[in-house]
Amino acid sequence: MDSEALVRDHTIYSCVMGSRAFGLATDTSDTDRRGVFLAPTPLFWRFEKPPTHVEGPAEEQFSWELERFCELALRANPNILECLHSPVVEYVDDTGRELLALREAFLSRRAHETFTRYALGQRKKLEADVRQHGAPRWKHAMHLLRLLMSARDLLRTGELTIDVGDQRQPLLAVKRGEVPWPRVETWMTRLGTETDESADRSPLPSEPDQARVEDFLVRVRRASALQSDPDDERVQGVVRGRSLGQR
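RE: above sequence
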């Protein structure tokens, strides 16, 4: 299957993530692009289904098919939820705008578990670096602190904001290795405690609004089926790409 054609011709939303979205970019920062594409419904009628995600075609670019994206967002996947809230949107069509309008439907107190579990895994890696090399990967330490701040504030306010605002300089100091590791550890522990405390009185619902998201997905799939012509050049381009890849 010609995955690049799906991204090129059927993207509904694309944004910039990473340091440039978090307000932590420097002159050497990469530009990480993330997106969502809507595979034409007729492609699901075949034995070989469209891919759930596509890497590329550009460097540092990664996209998800809409259904997979929604599924992960309902599970409160940190990377997916943050993608929905990027302040740097590069492209969005009408379907993409509908998706963005659903942002609050994906948010729930499930984020406490998923963000905390992800943060714990990252902290263990940093601690392993310290044991083996005497110091952590400071860039990763910076991003873990940022994630913990984001999780705490999400649970406190019910809103996900990923730009670090006035915490830019303190976080960049961590990235440069200017903050001793014991102080960084204490900062992480404090943020973790504040996150746990915020979860107990969070304004977020206990579960996401899956019914609302599913209604959106069904409507989009139905509209794609009604509008798609099996002989459409864009659909056939994807199918031809798949066939060529099987030879």
